Amino acid sequence: MASYELIGSYSTVQVLSPTLTNEIEYCTIRTQPSLVIASKPVQRTVFDAGQAGEELSIFAEAIEQIMSSDHAIVSATGSQVLDPASGLLDDVVIFTVAYPDATTGNAVTAEAVVPVGLLDFSDGQIGSVLLQQVDAILNAVYANLRDAAGG
Known about the structure:
Blueprint: E1 3-17, E2 20-32, E3 37-43, H1 44-48, H2 52-67, E4 73-82, E5 89-99, E6 108-115, H3 124-148
Antiparallel strand pairs: 1-2, 2-3, 4-5, 5-6
């Protein structure tokens, strides 16, 4: 299992809708060995019960699995984007995809934005479906780069 280092956290309220909020601990980790820094909200009750480690390990493992995949990933970092439908912030990990790959001197790159909610491949069938969704995002970005480069 991938390891991680917790590099920061703070208590806050996550706004899910105009009438629904969620008390969370917003945790920022650094994955090993890729050193990706990304953040994930953890339910406050889970954090207070000392059980955030499993959730953060699963998150780190998913990031590392993508970093070591065949998708020509150059780097990754955590971020937040505005959901156009709700106007609320969404947590994401932005993976930088290279074409043709990072080893060539003339590679071009683009960002693949992956919602944090998709980064849990631990539950058999659900994990498989989530991984397929992540693969589709990464493959689409790679295909766009390839097409734009005339490849």
